[in-house]
């Protein structure tokens, strides 16, 4: 069965729709994750940290030359606040800080890889 099952194809009870569409339903959870990864640089940051277990700000700046230091810091802080990225401060002078994926960030990566495969299987259509 390659087709996705939707509410239009399978009749369900009203209560089950509320569970799906309610404040703690499926749509709310997916929306929350999409908010966590929205932002021009968040996905590149996550994929870089998936490829390299630990990175410093200077490495991000080299790998993503179009990002500003301000945007890099902002996105890293947001990803850290959302629990996807961990910041490790070594307490040295000059300051040395590294970033890595948390368990939650690593758990998100198979989902993002699935989205990538979906995109490959269903390329953009013009029109």
Provide a quick synopsis of the model:
It is built from six helices and two strands, in the order αααααββα.
Notable characteristics:
single chain; globular; 6 helices; 127 residues; mainly alpha; 54% helix
Secondary-structure map:
Blueprint lengths: L13 H8 L4 H12 L4 H10 L5 H7 L5 H13 L3 E5 L7 E5 L1 H19 L6
Antiparallel strand pairs: 1-2
Describe this entry's structure for a reader.
By secondary structure, the protein is mainly alpha-helical. Helix content is 54%, strand content 8%. It is built from 6 helices and 2 strands; from the N terminus they run αααααββα. The chain has a two-stranded antiparallel ribbon with strand order 1-2. A hairpin with a 7-residue loop joins strand 1 and strand 2.
Please state how the strands of the largest beta sheet are arranged side by side: 1-2
Q: How much of the sequence is in beta strands?
A: 5-15%
Number of helices: 6
Biggest sheet record: 2 strands, antiparallel
Distance between the termini: 28 Å
Shape: globular
> How many beta-strand elements?
2
How much helix is in the residues? 40-55%
How much is the average pLDDT?
88
By secondary-structure content and strand pairing, the structural class works out as: mainly alpha
Query: Rg, please?
Result: 19 Å
């Amino acid at each position: 069965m390659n087709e996705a099952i939707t509410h239009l194809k399978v009749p369900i009870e009203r209560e089950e729709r509320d569970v799906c569409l309610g404040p703690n339903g499926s749509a709310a959870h997916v929306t929350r994750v999409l908010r966590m990864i929205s932002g021009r640089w968040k996905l590149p940051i996550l994929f870089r940290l998936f490829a390299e277990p630990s990175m410093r700000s200077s490495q991000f700046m080299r790998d993503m030359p179009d990002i500003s230091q301000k945007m890099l810091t902002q996105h890293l802080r947001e990803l850290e606040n959302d629990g996807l990225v961990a910041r490790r401060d070594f307490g040295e002078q000059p300051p040395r800080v590294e970033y890595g994926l948390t368990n939650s960030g690593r758990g998100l990566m198979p989902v993002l890889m699935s989205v990538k495969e979906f995109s490959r299987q269903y390329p953009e259509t013009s029109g």
